Amino acid sequence: MTASIKVIGMGDEIHHLLPPYLQMIEDSELLVGGERHLAFFPHYKGEKLVIKGGLKALLAQLQNEQRNVVVLASGDPLFFGIGHYLAQRVDVDIYPYVSSVQLAFAKMKESHQDARVISLHGRSIKGLAQKVDGKKKVALLTDETNSPAAIADYMLSFGMTEYSAFVAENLGGETERCTHMTLEDMTQWQGSSLNVVILKQETEGPSWRFSMEDEAFTQRKPDKGLITKKEIRTLSLGALALREDSTVWDIGTCTGSVAIEAAKLAREGAVFAIEKNEQDLANCYENMKKFRADITAIGGKAPERLEEFPDPDAIFIGGTAGGMEQILDVCCSRLKPGGAIVLNAVTIENLAQALEAFKQRNYETNVTLAQISRSKPILNLTRFEGLNPIYIIKATQKVGEEG
């Protein structure tokens, strides 16, 4: 057992540290941190250890240390920092400094209790659009790849012009710089890689409501329109029982209507879609921009390319193009425990084939026959016009059959 491990947060200057924190550092025998943090203590008498790469090697050393250790971190170590990782694995004491987000909002002179905080540091920007869309204030932790300029380009690609930006660089240091700017201005940004970006909604953007009208989607339009109709889409998404962090597959996405609404429901998750028709896929891309849903949509005929997707929590199958058996082989073997597959069938032959296929794979099924009619004016009167009946099949793994 180590005698003591203390994780101390600090700002961009050593004078930000409280005297008791400085005394803890002086009394320690091993000082751990990034090169920038360790450079603040050139006369430290103990051993210094630079954090490089992953944290597993550091954790292994700390678990066997007999000396008193101080780990230096930026800002609040429990705010997207090393503190949480260590506290879950070894006995540590945490001594936070003000977080970079707190400092940025202070410089902006804005409250932040209602802000959404998202870390892009070491993470992909994929999916940011649906996380930001509609939020009044968003703080973004950046890195060299996800820089303010890259963020501005990304936001503008989804037409999110209702947001202004505030970039806070080198907070608390001698070279601190804070700048209000438009997203267009931010595309030309150049500055320190140590920065926080705050997005503020200045005007109302386009609103999304669950179960969007069919006409809102760009689509190929024969007589009835090649799209999963609103009512069927609503029932199918309900059957999938998505969580906020669900990973979703949409097979045969066509216009992307199901995938896009799924992305809005699973904002913290990810949606992966495949479509064999190039024109439909182009329409899907256009709808993604329009509805600010950053999903992964690729061209191909399932089950080809499904190996590129991570294991899903939920799968929607809007069409199989004659490859139902092969598609279900993949879907049933990859679905996570507790997940659901929803398959829409138009013909009784496809219904029968799907039920038998799920039965062979030890899946339980529940079928809803949706016979929808919509009102339609006729002169000064109203009549109803029926849509094609759809079989909505929900399949789940039998208890004890997972894996």
UniProtKB/TrEMBL annotation:
SUPFAM superfamilies: S-adenosyl-L-methionine-dependent methyltransferases, Tetrapyrrole methylase. InterPro entries: 4pyrrol_Mease, 4pyrrol_Methylase_sf, 4pyrrole_Mease_sub1, 4pyrrole_Mease_sub2, CbiE, Cbl_synth_CobL, Cbl_synth_MTase_CbiT, Cobalamin_biosynth_MTase. Signal peptide: none annotated. GO terms for biological process: cobalamin biosynthetic process; methylation. Pathway: Cofactor biosynthesis; adenosylcobalamin biosynthesis. GO terms for molecular function: protein methyltransferase activity. NCBIfam families: CbiE, CbiT. This is CbiET protein. It comes from Fictibacillus macauensis ZFHKF-1.
